[in-house]
Amino acid sequence: MRLVDAGTLEQDATRRRAPLSELTLTDANEMILLHEVVRTFTAARLLTTNTITGTATVEVSHEALISKWARLHNWLGEAYEDIRLQKKLSEDVAAWIHVGKPADRLYRGSQLVEAQVWRTQNIPSQDEEAFLQASAAEQEREKAAEKQKQRRYTRRVVLVGIGGLGLVAAAIPLTRYFFPSSSASRPSFQTVTYRGHSSLVDSAAWSPDGKYIASASNDQSVQVWEALTARRVQTYRGHTGSVFSAAWSTDGKYIASAGVDATVQVWEALSARHVQSYKGVFSAAWSPDGKYIASASLDTTVQVWEALSARYVQTYTGHTDSVFSAAWSPDGKYIASASDDKTVQVWEALSARRVQSYTGHAADTTVQVWEALTARRVQTYRGHSDWVHSAAWSPDGKYIASASDDKTVQVWEALSARHVQTYRGHFFTVISAAWSPDGKYIASASADTTVQVWLVLLS
Hints:
Number of helices: 6
CATH superfamily of the largest domain: YVTN repeat-like/Quinoprotein amine dehydrogenase
Largest sheet: 4 strands, antiparallel
Helix content: 10-25%
Distance between the termini: 54 Å
CATH topology of the largest domain: Methylamine Dehydrogenase, Chain H
CATH class of the largest domain: Mainly Beta
Strand order of the largest sheet: 7-32-31-30
Shape: globular
Number of strands: 32
């Protein structure tokens, strides 16, 4: 699989020239078997070896071996996401080695988590294994260093979501520093665990009537299931890579999903019939009236579209780095967008005129609440011991649930930051948390491949 570029829906699979260093494994027995396979296939002229600018390489000899081999096509379809991740990893490892193995080229946060999950199901090369081990060690070193700085630095984070009281709780998933937590935990009760996905789950969203949950996963699917029974209702497989987000239309008829294939796709929730597609990455958010979708992108923009026609409406260009999430205000007039440029920006949805930019964030483990139109900070929550992936307001606007790399979801009062509840049912990073429409339950999506629905215990 390392010798194949899996392509896309528009591009057939093609051969890929790989350096022989990618075929150097850590296990000696596996290494012997692999070299015997390469030797045999090369002798049969199925593989070709070469030396290019001093680097020994190997590649498939003929494109026909890829295009005409039906079984290989099936393998490629099953392993598409693994191939994509391996290709990106090998490129990053090569660049890391080329520039002298600096620490700033190592993986951190969700990128490291994704690579570690890939490693559990695949065989990394010796260089890839060294890179991943160095990444994990560097992350632990940074964690220890930040603990020492805890008393000297203000802890902040960047996540996005507009609350009904004109306040914003914000954080971005690229904060990579770590602090200990002293917040007390209270017992919570897991109600349902959904295990339909085969890879980490990036988000979970409740239908407006509270009956269903749509979960988006790195297994390239969005799955719709009954919230309190975990019975699967539908699976949407229109994406060709990891799916980062899924959002219901306000009438509950449609779902908009966004993923690594650079598309936002709109489809009927209960039939999975495709309705519309347009460009967008990372997240998609419906306007309150259900007419528009805002999509956040790696290209530093947020674009607004008509949901069912895909007619372009507006582009917001105020950010200077990748944008990871966007959320509409309850009245539909404004959008708040969170970016890797460490800002949350509030702007008019249909004119793209910037109203406010919140710059109070740095790398830490907090969630901050602030007034949307003045950027005045109201509260900072410091209960997590690792970086925070997302924050969600309760339907009544009184509470916030925050999901963290510390494997917990914590519920706290929005205006006082008083800790209310900690849920510890996951054994890996919790990526998102979503309240049920009645505020009784929270659905949490995790890198452990599950979505868990649990009862909220409010005093």
